[in-house]
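tmp note - Galactose oxidase/kelch repeat superfamily protein isoform 2
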Amino acid sequence: MWSTLPFDVLAKIFSFLSPDSLACARSACRQWHTCARTYPSTLPQHHQAWFLALPTRNRGQCCYVHNPVVDKWHMLSLDFLPDPIRPVASIGTLILVRPTNCTILQLALCNPFTRQFKYLPMLNITRTNPAVGVVILEPGQPGPNPDFRVYVAGGMSEAPRGGATYEATLEMYDSVDDAWHIMGFMPVEFAVRLTVWTPNESVYSDGVLYWMTSARAYSVMGFHLGSHTWRELSVPMADRLEFAALLWRNGRLTLVGGTCGEDACIWELTEGDGWGLIEKVPIELGIKFLGGKRSWGSTKCVGSEGAICLYREFGSGMVVWREIEEKVRWEWFWVEGCHFIRDKQVQNLQIKGSV
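out:
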């Protein structure tokens, strides 16, 4: 019976498997392997998000994933990758990544579980260190892959008379036609800030693509996709925050940040471009996370629709605020850092996280 199931039916069954179970199913036979490759976006849609930890120096060409259901860490080999990578954003079951062995921006799609890897076409304008943003079109759409667009803003490019200059243009990659398009110009001062003071993380909400900038005081830069206009938003306690990250939660733009000697807080953007405080990291978890110190300076944050993770080094542990489906509420959890996998000691590495 299993050998005669249509691919779309088999793919629907696969969508209920956890990532580790799907990896096992993929290796069962040629038909299942082909189905998993043909319908990669039917990977788990009904399971809690797994935390992916990529060593920032890509030592040993491997990454680590945390299964929240059984609270267990796994190691995945990345020996199928042609180059070391750094995660940029999650796109369904794929991860948008950039190779780290070259300063010129090139992007690729990767799935560590199914060992898929594909380079995107080169940009129209060669750039170094631009801001990158992702917009998933119709997130609930059926089919093997979600359609998406990647926006690249600012960066440094070669000047007409030699040297380098800030690139005040915006490019967009459309997965439908697999090509980059020049979308127009942007204010030079925005290009400078997006180049120098912005990490790659972005959030799309209500037609606007947002990036966090950290020039002197934190602020948020936004690009409205419909009108092609730029805007700037203020940030609460902007000059006091030791770390700040933008996330998307419950359909709203969400900000996570912490100040020295105080709590880490979570805000949501409200009408009128104001920020409303919705939650704080519990005191006992904050103390455990900081290890008795008072500074949040080395904290990183990543999130998805159903979870927000605060982390530092691989072995230091994570604080997670996660949605509990059956209880229709969010709860705080502590996730121990990884020190051993299958009785083999793991180094305490600097990591870049993704969910």
